[in-house]
């Protein structure tokens, strides 16, 4: 290698560790703690069995900096040592690699290890060889994933500097692209997560948390709206209370809410969510500093979240419409049957309590989720909506029904299911769809002797099994035109007696636990 540099005494600056150990140079301070965190050095690994090559490389490149960051050198004298250093320092930017070391192809095998075994495509590999005939350039470039090939004899000090600088610049670009890709993945994953939330407080809290996770060193995240007196009002917040916000940040939040433009300071950032039909909100992140790439990711997430908020509002309106439909259909059934009104209110409370008790027992883990427990109470209102199709003479008959009349009465289960399935329009995840299941199945029996389909066991929808227990309990406990009210002890005896035949025993056990804990509440 010819570079015009004085080699005298240079080799003395290096020290070799005991045989088999990794060699590193002692005089490589990493700088103060803050400098190491904010301005870490670029790592270049020298892999060569010639100690003078290490020493001269350090002399030539020792004062090198790139983008205001110094260069730190790591040294290995064998491919085995290099593997250990690569595993210990995953952020190595470039490797100056000899071909012939402990074996004639040790360097080439190390290239394969880096690219294939480690799956490291970022590190820049510069092959340096003193024996070009041992590894012909055209063949090596075609066969191995290296980034440069240099004969040691051609590497002047200037060419070595240029080669190293080009490698660092290429590594920086690749790392930036990879970080951007990972950041975009996190943004899309966060947007998908937020899109699955069905309450505004959960959505805003989730957005604040996800945005903070995109950027390092964020100590607080606030979702703010416009408050009184020219100050922001916290809607959702973690960390610093809004009252403690510096005046400059509070002013920027209000300004951003007014014009919709983001504000980025040295230690804070403000990005606005502006929906179609709602007052704007501002996300305020405190901490940082915020690199340009971080700012773009936060702004992208907020633009996605603004669309998500609009969609959430549409969902809320659809949900409100479904609730209104449920109440309207419930009123229709109540109009036909005067005992229905109070009965369905109690039934809804019992059904919800049973569902939550079953979930607490970890029963039916594939079915009992938040949606189920939140929906069954209102959906149970619709269990007897099919009675609108039953003649009043049968529905309000004061005595027992004969066989023909009972056959007509039993049609209300199928009628109710049909009405509700038409009303839900194919939506399988709403009050009306669960109401259809309940209307059709709450007269099925666990042993298969019920109606209208004669379903048995777990083939009966869980919502129907729950409502069946609550419906019979409440119906027997209260007076009807055709019967007197039962004593509660009689009702409980019947539930226990019919457990496993009429009723799902798991549902009965959960209901008895609810009654023991909360009382009958009649």
From TrEMBL:
Residue stretches making up the HD-GYP domain: 318-522
Top-level taxon: Bacteria
Record's protein name: DUF3369 domain-containing protein
Record keyword Protein biosynthesis present: no
Keyword terms, alphabetized: Phosphoprotein
Residue stretches of biased makeup (Basic and acidic residues): 1-19
Organism: Azospirillum endophyticum
Response regulatory domain span: 43-167
Coiled coil (UniProt feature): none
Pfam short name (any one): DUF3369
